[in-house]
Write a sequence for this structure.
C-alpha cells in the first residue's frame, strides 16, 4: 500500500507537481504521426500532463506543439490557419512557427509591433516509430537524447503503433503492465484458442502463483516472473519497466515484441500507447489481421476520439454467459479486460486501502523506483534513466528455463538488442 | 425552517456523518429481490449511504453485500465471477464469501497466502417482502431484530414492491410523505376519475386546510390530518413516520395499504421504495393493473436504471393544456407530481429559506424527531426505534370520524396489526 | 492584461459580488417577449446573474419575475399554475402576483394564514423593443429610468431581436464586441460575396492595423477605429460601449444599425442578445431573409434552448477546406466565428496570461471603465450611466472621413438620435 501522501505524490502530474517534473525529464509520446499526416494540415488538440496544447505540421513538415491558447488574447489555436511555415491565430492573425516564435503580428502597425517579445510555450518534437514525441521539460535542462528503443529504429513496416484513451490515472495502467501475476486470471480462457491474439503465451501461464525477482537497471527495472513449467523447468516471463511509465510485455523468441506507454493526459485520464514490432522482418498482413481482431493487447477504438468501443459506460460489453463458459471475465480482448479492472478502481485509486502480497513484487518495485526517483528529483538529482538513452535498447522475453537457473542470466541473450 | 447547520446535520449521510450513523442503526432496503434472482447470477452494483457496494447471490442462495472494490488492488467486484459459494475478483482471482471472508487467494503461493488477514466490508442481508435489506452498522453494535412490518410478513402474492431512482436528497422525499397537506393541491384532479389509481381517496381531501395532531410512538410518529367532512364529521388521514425514513400512506378500511422508504444512495440521490399490500387476500390482477397505469403513487421507471420515465430532464412530461383542464399540475401520476416538486428543490434544499405554517406540522414533527434522535446518537444513545422491531407492526388509516373525536383513538383499531 | 484579482473582480457576477452589484444598477434583458407571448401562458425559467428565477405573464398581461422556488417549501414555480392574476405553486397552492405579494395561502386555515408576511424575491419588468427587461437591484435604490435606446422606441416592425446561449463568461463576449481590430482577420472572406450578411462592411476593413481613439461619455465609451482608405481618406468605425455590457456595431449611413448585450446567466455562461433596427423604415422581408442566412452577426440557434447549432461540441462546424479557400476560419457566420474564439478561451479566461498591444485599445478602455466604475460602486458611488437614461439615445457609425479629421467630430451627426 501507499500512504495518502505517497499516492498523491505519484499520481499528480500537472505543472508544478513533483511527478509532473519527473515526466518532464523524458521524451513522451504526444500523438500518432497518422494524426498529423501532412504539411499545412489541420492542427490537433493535445492534452498532456494537464496542459492544453495544439500540434501542427508546418509547410516544411516540421511538427510544432504550442500552448493551445494564443498569447495575445487567448483564442484557441486549434481553429488556427496552418500556412506558410507557421500557425496563425484566426482572431487577430498572430502567427507562430514550430519553435514558438511570433513571426507575424498583422493587427499592429509596424511601429507598435512587439512580436519579438512574445514567447509562448512551445515544446520540441521528434518523430520516431510512428509516434510524435515531445519534451515538456524545455527550459529546465538540456533536451535529452532520444531513448534507443529498438522499435523506434526499425523500418516502418516492422512496427504497429496504436493509441487509446483510458479513463483513469496513468499509474493504474502502468501497474497493470508490470503485474505479470494477473495474466493467469484476468486473461484466462477456458477453451484455449490459438487464433486469439496473445493467447499462446497466456496458455503457458497456468501456474497462478509466480515467484518474482526484480533487478534495477539504468532505464528502470527488469522484472522476472517464474512459473512452474514441469518438474525440471520454469516458465520465465521477463518484463521491463522503463522510466517514466513504459513497459515491455514478455514475448517468446521468434515472436513480435510489445511495448506500452501510460502517458497522463491529466491526473484523471491517460493516453495508452501499445506498440508491437519484429526486429527481424516486416509485419505480415496476417500479423496485423491478428492484432485487429482486438482480442489481444490492442483495444478497438473510435478512430477519432480513440475511446475504446468497450468502455466503462457499457461495462466493457461484458457477456455473463461467456464469463461462465469461455473466459474468466466474459470481456472480449486482453486490453479490454485490463481496462475493466484498471478503470474500475476509479479516477485515482486510493492505495492506502489495498493489501499486497508476494505476487505484487513487480508493482511494489515500480512504485519504490518512482518514489525514490521523484524524491531525488525534488532535491535536484536528475533521474539516471533520463540521461541513459542507450540503455533503452532492450527486449522483453518469455522462455522456458531450467528450474533454479537465474532467470535474468538466462534472458540476457534474449533481451539484448544487437542492431 | 432549519438553520444551515441543522440542514447539514439531517441531509449528510455518508460514512462518518451523524445522520449516516442514524441510518446505520436500521435495516435498510438495498435492492429488489428481483434484481438478484438466482444463485450464481450476475453481481449488481449498489450505492447506499454514499458507499459503493456490490451485491451477489451465492450458490446456496445467500445474498452478500461487499465493498465494491477488491481488498487486494481495488478492481471492481462487479465484474467478478459469482461461483462456488463466493464472488471471485477477475483481476487476480481472490474470492470472498457472503460474510466477507477471503476464501481463496490463488495468486499467492501457499507459503505467502494471507487470506485470513483480509476482512473487506461485508454487510448482513435478509430478504423480506420482495426486498433485500442490509444492515450497514455492522461492528458498532449487535445486529438489530428485523422490524415487524406487516407487508414483510404476508404471503408474497399479497404485496407489490417497486423502486425508483430519485434525483435529490432523501429528506425532500421523506418530507413529502409526511405532508398530508399537499394532497389537496398537488394531486388534485378537476374531473374526478375513479379509474385513476389512488384518486378515490384524494377526492375526499377537498378541504385544503387540515388540522394536524402528532403523537410520538416507539417506531417514530403517528400523524393525523383532520379535514372537514360534513357538519358533524371529519375525514381523518393517519400517516405513520417510522424511523429512519419510512412512512405509511393513509388507506381506507378494506383497501390496500401502502408503505414508502426514502433510502439515500448518497447525499444527492435517493432510492425511493413504494410497497402496497393486502392483509386479507392476495392482490388481484386488476389491483396490479391499476398500479401499473402509473397514475398513482408508483412512477413508471426504466426497468434497468429505475430512472422514472417522467423526470427532471423532460420536465416530468408536463402537459400545460391538461394543467388547465384536467389536473392541478398537468403531470400524469401522483408520484410523478411528487418528483416534480421534490426534485425541483435542487439536490439538497436549503431549508433556511422556507416559511412554514400550521399545515406543515407533520414535516416539523418529523424534523424534530430526527434532530433529537441524531443528537442523542451523537452522545451514544441508541434510537429507541432501532430496538423496537415489534412496534413496526402498524397500518395507516383514512376514515370518517365524528367531529371532535380524538383521531388516534378512533384509528386505533384500524392501525393495529393483529396477525 | 489584468491581474488575477482584477480578473476575478470583473468576471464574478452572482449575489454579493461587486460586478454583480454593478449589473444590478441597470435594466437588463431577461428574455424575449416571444418567450412569454400570452396572458396565463406557461411560466419560463430564467437564469440571470447566478440567480434562478421564473417569469410569467399574468391575466392582465403584466410580466412577473420571481425567485424560482416557492417561499413556502421550495417547490419550483416553473411547474406553477399561471391563473387569475398570479402564479400558483402546485405543491400547496400558494399564489403570488407579479409584484411578489402572496395573494393566496389556501393550505392554512384562515386563523393561521400568514400570507402578508411572505415577500419573495420579485423583480420589476418592462417590455421594450421585443425584450422583457428586468431590474435586479430592487431594494437598494430607486428603480432607474429606462435607457433611451432608439431601437427600444421605434415601431415593432423596425426591429429584429435575437438571443443565443453562449458558453463562457460575459466579458469574453463583451471584449469581442468592442474590439474592432479583429474584423480584418476573424471575419475576413477571400471571395467577397455581397450576398453574405454584413460582408459589405467587412470588405472595407482591409487595413488590418487600425488606430484607435476612445472618448468617455455619459453612457460609457465611444471607440473609433480608423483604417487607411486611400491616400487622402480614412475608414472610421465608431463603436459604442454602453454600461454595463452593451455595444453598438458600426453601420454605414442608410443601413440598419445593430446593438448587442452580453448578459451573464452566471459566471460561466451568457445570454447574448443581438438587435438590428432601421430608424427610418420597417425592415423589409429581404432584410430579415438576409439576417436569417445566419452568415452575419446572428447565430442560428435551437429555438427552445437558444443553443447555437454551430457550437463548442461540434467545433463550430469548421470546414478546413473552406478555411483554405473561402474564409479566414472556415466557419460559416460572423457570430459563429466570434463564438469559436470567445468560448475557446475557456469558461473564464485568465487575463494575466495575455499580451496586449495598441490594437487592443478598445478592450483596455472598456476594462478600465468597468474597473473604475465597479470600485467606485464599492465605495457607494452610483455609476453615472445608471442615471443617464437619455444618453443611451445614440447610434453607431462607419464612414469614410478625410485623413486627419477627428473621427468623433465627423461622426457626431451620424451617431446622434434625433427622434
Amino acid at each position: 500500500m501507499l500512504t495518502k501522501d505517497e499516492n498523491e505524490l505519484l499520481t499528480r502530474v500537472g505543472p508544478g507537481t513533483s511527478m509532473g517534473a519527473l515526466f518532464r525529464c523524458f521524451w513522451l509520446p504526444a500523438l500518432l504521426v497518422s494524426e498529423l499526416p501532412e504539411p499545412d494540415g489541420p492542427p490537433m488538440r493535445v492534452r498532456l500532463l494537464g496542459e492544453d496544447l495544439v500540434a501542427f505540421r508546418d509547410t516544411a513538415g516540421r511538427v510544432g506543439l504550442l500552448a493551445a491558447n494564443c498569447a495575445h488574447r487567448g483564442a484557441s489555436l486549434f481553429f488556427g490557419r496552418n500556412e506558410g511555415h507557421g500557425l496563425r491565430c484566426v482572431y487577430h492573425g498572430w502567427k507562430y512557427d514550430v519553435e514558438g516564435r511570433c513571426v507575424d503580428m498583422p493587427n499592429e502597425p509596424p511601429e507598435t509591433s512587439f512580436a519579438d517579445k512574445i514567447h509562448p510555450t512551445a515544446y520540441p518534437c521528434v518523430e520516431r516509430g510512428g509516434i510524435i514525441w515531445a519534451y515538456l521539460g524545455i527550459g529546465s535542462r538540456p533536451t535529452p537524447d532520444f531513448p534507443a528503443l529498438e522499435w523506434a529504429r526499425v523500418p516502418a513496416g516492422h512496427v504497429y503503433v496504436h493509441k487509446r484513451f483510458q479513463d483513469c490515472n496513468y499509474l493504474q495502467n502502468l501497474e497493470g503492465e508490470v503485474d505479470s501475476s494477473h495474466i493467469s486470471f484476468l486473461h484466462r480462457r477456458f477453451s484455449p484458442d490459438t487464433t486469439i491474439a496473445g493467447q499462446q503465451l497466456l496458455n503457458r501461464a497456468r501456474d497462478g502463483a509466480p515467484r518474482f525477482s526484480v533487478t534495477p537497471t539504468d532505464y528502470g527495472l527488469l522484472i522476472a516472473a517464474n512459473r512452474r513449467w514441469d518438474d525440471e523447468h520454469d516458465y520465465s516471463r521477463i518484463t521491463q519497466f522503463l522510466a517514466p511509465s513504459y513497459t515491455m510485455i514478455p514475448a517468446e523468441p521468434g515472436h513480435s515484441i510489445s511495448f506500452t506507454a501510460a502517458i497522463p493526459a491529466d491526473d484523471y485520464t491517460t493516453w495508452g500507447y501499445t506498440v508491437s514490432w519484429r526486429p527481424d522482418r516486416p509485419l505480415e498482413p496476417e500479423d496485423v489481421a491478428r492484432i485487429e481482431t482486438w482480442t489481444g493487447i490492442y483495444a478497438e477504438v473510435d478512430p477519432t476520439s480513440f475511446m475504446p468501443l468497450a468502455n466503462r459506460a457499457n461495462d466493457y460489453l461484458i457477456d455473463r454467459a461467456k464469463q461462465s463458459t469461455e473466459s474468466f471475465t466474459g470481456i472480449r480482448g486482453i486490453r479490454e479486460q485490463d481496462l475493466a479492472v484498471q478503470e474500475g478502481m476509479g479516477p485515482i485509486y486510493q492505495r492506502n486501502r489495498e493489501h499486497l502480497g508476494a505476487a505484487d513484487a513487480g508493482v511494489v518495485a515500480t512504485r519504490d523506483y518512482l518514489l525514490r526517483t521523484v524524491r531525488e528529483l525534488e532535491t535536484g538529482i536528475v533521474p539516471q534513466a533520463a540521461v541513459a538513452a542507450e540503455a533503452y535498447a532492450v527486449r522483453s522475453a518469455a522462455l522456458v528455463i531450467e528450474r533454479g537457473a537465474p532467470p535474468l542470466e538466462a534472458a540476457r541473450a534474449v533481451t539484448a538488442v544487437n542492431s
Notes: The longest strand of chain B covers residues 233-242. The longest helix of chain B spans residues 361-378. Chain B has a mean pLDDT of 94. Chain B touches chain A at residues 41-42, 69, 71-76, 78-79, 81, 90-93, 105-109, 112-114, 117-118 (CB under 8 Å).
